[in-house]
Amino acid sequence: MRQVMVRLLKHPTAVVGASIIAVYVLAAIFAPYLSPHSPVKNNLSLRNAPPFWQEGSVPGHWLGTDALGRDIFSRILYGGRVSLLVGLLSTGFSMLLGTTLGALAGYFRGALDQLLSRLSDLLLAFPFLIFAIGVMAFLGPGFWNLVWALSFKGWVEFFRLTRGAVLSEKTREYVEAAKALGVRDGRIILRHLLPNVIHSVLVLTTLRVGFFIVLEASLSFLGLGLPPSVPAWGSMINEGRDVLAVAYWVSTMPGIALLILVLAINLLGEGLRDVLDPRLREMY
Predict the structure, then answer these.
(1) Quick one: which H or E segment has residue 219?
(2) How far is CA 116 from CA 144, 159, 268, in A?
(3) Residue 159 pLDDT > 90
(4) Are 200 and 206 in contact (CB under 8 A)?
(5) Which residues have C-beta within 8 Å of that of residue 248, sequence separation ≥ 6?
(6) Which of 21, 54, 85, 94 is most enclosed, with most CB atoms within 10 A?
(7) How many domains does the structure of the chain reveal?
(8) C-alpha span between 263 and 222 (Å, rounded)
(9) What is the DSSP string of 24-65?
């Protein structure tokens, strides 16, 4: 792990991506101290005020206000909390479930492998966004409902990746030697197989965080994500689409925040891929 960190620090793309992500994380953690205004308090006298609008001695609205006079900058800070938490939790649950099931199916095969493989094929037949819309329409808006809706299908990619890697690794000599020595199956999976496939899982994990953040924004844009009272980038973009001609900042600012975060996550994922790939490792 230490060698991986050293190589990552030498990878300029990964450093840029990690630095931007760190800024977002710190901004989300300290949002109550950084936001100059309440993210939910209305002020109809300042509807669609432009960026840097100053009203007397009150702190200025650096990114403007929306149709209800709410401060865009403050709402972006709090919306970052939602996006990061949904992305991390959905990816974490998906990785844990998919990696576990993939390792078991790839190692033991048989009826378990057939059942899980057919289930994953069935889930892959549905476009992710359409599937998530259906689940959220059934469960209703809510933070944890959104996390479960994304995780319920998100495990499939981790399952297929881990299953294929375990199928390949279990034919190696070190696995046969461990079996000959009487090592239990669970120990072989945990101590020998998973450490050899975890690098690929980590790269996929990084990329899926950005994917889930975009999906959360898409569902919030459609009104199927979080309740309207909770600041979310997707719902903010939706609220400003009817006033783009006169108040472009309502949709543009949260859209730019979303774009930069997802781009940074993808840059970090690309750096991890380059560092962990044996064919590219010598470059860093």
Answers:
(1) helix 194-221
(2) 25, 9, 31
(3) yes
(4) no
(5) 240
(6) 94
(7) 1
(8) 22
(9) HHHHHHTHHHH-SS-SS---GGGTTPPTTEEETTEEEETT-B
User: What mean pLDDT is predicted for residues 4-21?
Assistant: 82
- Kindly report, residue by residue over 15-73, the tens digit of the pLDDT: 899 999 999 999 999 999 988 888 888 888 888 888 876 555 455 778 888 888 888 99
pLDDT at residue 132 tops 70: yes
The DSSP result for 239-283, as a single string, is HTGGGTTT-THHHHHHHHHHHHHHHHHHHHHHHHHHHH-TTTGGG
- Which CATH number belongs to the domain containing residue 217 in this structure? 1.10.3720.10
Q: How far apart are the first and last CA of the chain?
A: 15
Q: Which structural domain range is residue 168 located in?
A: 2-283
Closest alpha carbon to 220 in 211, 231, 206: 231
Task: pLDDT band for 166, please (50, 70, 90 cuts).
Answer: confident
